[in-house]
Amino acid sequence: MFDTINRISIKVTDFCNLDCVYCHQQQKVKDETSEFKYFDKLESFIESLPLAEAVDVLVTGGEISIKLHLFEKVEKILRRIERKRDVQFIMSVISNGTNMQGLIDIVNEGRMKASSVSFSWDGIHSYTESRKGKLPNLSDEYFNNNIPLIVKHGYAHSINVAFAITPTTITSLVDSLRFCLDSGLRNFSFYYIHEANYTDPEFIENYRNALEKVAQIFVGTYHDVEKRFRYYNWQNMYCRYKASDASMFAKTSCVKLGNSIHIDIDGAVYPCTFFSDHRSMQIGHILEGFYQDRIDVFTEEYFTEPSCDMSSCKNEHCFECPASNYILNKGLNNRTMNICHLLSIEREIFMRYFDMLHISPYDALTFWNVGTSVIESHIDNKRTATCHLPIAENPQYKYEDEMLVSDNIEVVQSW
Question: What does pTM read for this prediction?
Answer without folding.
Answer: 0.93
